[in-house]
Amino acid sequence: MSGLFQDDPTDEADSVPAPEGPGLFGDALPVALPEPVHTTPYRVLARKYRPATFDDLIGQETMVRTLRNAFAVGRVAHAFMLTGVRGVGKTTTARIIARALNCVGPDGTGGPTADPCGVCGNCVAILAEREPDVFEMDAASRTGVDDVREIIEVSRSRPMKIRTKVFIIDEVHMLSKAAFNALLKTLEEPPPHVKFVFATTELRKVPITVLSRCQSFALRRVRISELQQHFGRIAQKEQVTIETAALEQIARAADGSVRDGLSILDQAMARAEGTITGAQVADMLGLSDRVMVFDLLDAVMAGIPRQALQISDRAYERGADHGTLLQDLLELLHMVTRLKSIPGLRHSQDLPEAERTRGAELADRLSVPVIARAWQMLLKGVGEVETAPDRRAAAEMVLIRLCHVADMPTPGDLIRRLTSGNPGGAPPSLPSGGGGGVRAVANGAAVAAAAAEPGPRLGTFRDVVAFVGERKEAMLHAHLLHSVHLVRFAPPVIELRPETDAPRDLASRLAALLSEATGSRWTIAMSAAAGEATIAEQGNAADSARKTAAADHPLVRAILAAFPGARIDTVHDKTTDAYGLPAAALPPAPDMPEFAPPDAEYFDEDPMEIDL
User: What's the burial of 389, exposed, middle or buried (CB within 10 Å: 0-12/13-18/19+)?
Assistant: First the structure.
């Protein structure tokens, strides 16, 4: 028999009888529930797979190579500036640098190394973000000069345990001007036991006085192919099955940011039941399927509005936003243009298979003017969708317009067809009634003069120079203005004296351009005769003469006297051409009846305008 204070050797659960019947207040007695099992909280993928060494960083080979060399030869800078878009590894790199500076190795005798061991006390403490001598500050929330003064004060004392104090300041461009100024002296001559690592997404906002005291590294966006492989490895470690199309969608949506991509992958893993498919990811992100975008571009470029609207309806049913759909078309057009301009991209492993195959087909089929026209229409359409009361209707109108212009020739095609006398296929029937009717030639070989574009008017050398400017030949136009003197103009022969800075091929280029435009052969001869002043010199002389004439006007003299310091800046003469010279004489006007009475006062409408 157990004593009064003696423990019962039997189990407590067996010795205490279970309550029977209602409790004191008539209710059944509560039954004690078991203690909850405490599980490890879930860590998001971006934190779980954060790189711990330089080898773990992806897409930053240039920076890693430079830092490895610096640690190998003992030339580690006292301050680093890491710049790049969000999520490419700026803060992660800063923490790796902090561990590399303070690693002592598994035996506790090591020095700074580009390959921190990760197991010594310093590495573990810094990795766990509990090392007091590695300071991390978010400049977005602590922007004032007092915060920087606190850093300066702390930097004067030696570290308590580790080898080097490291100050990591994120979004450093958010510091105030006074804070930057307070940091300059310490940043230029820091104590030997202190290193600074700055991170920013807005490098242009950092004062040049700070940048000049730092070793800068630009972390680049990670390529889609690298992101896709990285996310595939992580999905395999997480024992998650994911389609290649889904990985491609996630890598493309990440836009070069590893962290953004891991967040999207995390979300996809939480939503999916079983295999993660490309359709599930597209639905989650509100994107249109890549194959669907290709089909849509095929439909609009083929001019099939029914098919284009059907594809648009399917995308809408799957939750895709119509503005995003047009932006996907813009992005695809840009990619097709790159494939057309750089044929070697068709064999690049950075592009997914769909881009290399279907994109190459579109690049071969579409001309650059057609792509450029579609780009401009889509660019305008995206803005329309954003401001329209009905986004779906606005997007469908853009698609219909694209289909409508698909079979229309570009302006360049129109000019070539008109100048060749065959504007495309059999000429349409044109009215031939009395007066000024136009008649098409029966065999379709030519069209009456009204359908042909007139050639350029080249009556003077200035007309020739203006024509070259209209053809967007900027360098040739500039040399004709400033570097040649006209000796003789007798079309189709032009005799010029070039200046020493004129290019040697000026004559051949000008002759080829004029021959192509007029259909007749031109000869550009070079002469040693003096010739006229250059057109630019003539224009400057004419401008000086106009200013002199304006300054002699009584009203202008009165204005200049009333406003000391005023000067004549420009004199605009409506009768001059683009080069400031008098326009060519127009043909005499036909005789017109006099509408004003003989005794009407004469009104002198001076075409000259003066800017003071």
Answer: exposed
**How far is 353 from 350, CA to CA, in rounded Å?**
9
> In 177-281, at which residue ranges do the beta strands (DSSP E only) sit?
194-200, 215-218
Phi-psi region for residue 567, left (φ > 0), alpha (ψ -120 to 50) or beta?
beta
Distant-in-sequence, close-in-space partners of 313: CB < 8 Å, separation ≥ 6? none
Helix and strand numbers, DSSP H then E, in the chain: 25, 10
Contact, 351 vs 410, CB < 8 A?
A: no
Residue 159 DSSP code = P
Question: What is the chain's Cα-based Rg?
Answer: 39
Bridge partners (DSSP) of residue 170 are 138, 199
Q: What type of residue sits at position 570?
A: T
Long-range contacts of 396-402 (CB under 8 A, 24+ apart): 396/309, 396/312, 396/322, 398/326, 399/296, 399/300, 399/305, 399/308, 399/309, 399/312, 400/305, 400/308, 400/309, 401/377, 402/300, 402/301, 402/308, 402/374, 402/377, 402/378
Three-class DSSP labels, 293-342: HHHHHHHHHCCCHHHHHHHHHHHHHCCCCHHHHHHHHHHHHHHHHHHHHC
Identify the bridge partners of residue 194 per DSSP, sorted by sequence position: 165
Q: Which residue has the tokens 């995003």?
A: 324
Q: Is 524 helix (H, G, I), strand (E, B) or coil?
A: strand
The C-alpha atoms of residue 612 and residue 424 are separated, in whole angstroms, by 55
Query: Per DSSP, which regions of 66-164 are E strands?
Result: 79-83, 134-138
Q: How far apart are CA 76 and CA 98, in angstroms?
A: 12
DSSP secondary structure string, 32-76? PPPPPP-PPPP--HHHHT---SGGG--S-HHHHHHHHHHHHHT--
Of 292, 301, 325, which is closest to residue 391 (Cα–Cα)? Answer: 325
Token pair belonging to 39: 């599980």
The predicted-structure confidence for 472-518, as pLDDT tens digits, reads as follows: 778 888 888 888 899 988 888 899 998 888 888 888 888 888 888 88
Can you tell me which residue has the tokens 């095929």?
Answer: 298
At residue 77, φ and ψ (nearest 5 deg) are: -65, 160
Cα 248 to Cα 349, 554, 557: the distances in Å are 13, 76, 74
Average pLDDT over residues 575-588: 65
Residue the block writes with tokens 């360098």: 475
Closest CA to 351 of 233, 222, 225: 225
Handedness of CA 172, 173, 174, 177 (dihedral sign): positive
CB-count burial class (<10 Å; 0-12, 13-18, 19+) for 309: middle
Residues across the chain:
612
Among the listed residues 202, 213, 214, the one whose alpha carbon sits nearest the alpha carbon of residue 97? 214
Strands 79-83, 194-200: pairing kind: parallel
Q: Which residues pair with 195 in a beta bridge?
A: 166
Whether the pTM exceeds 0.70: the reply is no
Backbone torsions φ then ψ of 198, nearest 5 degrees: -105, 145
Instruction: Report pLDDT digits (tens) over 1-42.
Output: 444 444 444 444 444 455 555 554 555 555 556 666 556 678
Residue found by looking up tokens 């127009």 in the block: 586
**Both tokens of residue 571?**
């004199």
Q: Report the alpha-carbon distance of residue 78 to residue 290 in Å, rounded.
A: 47
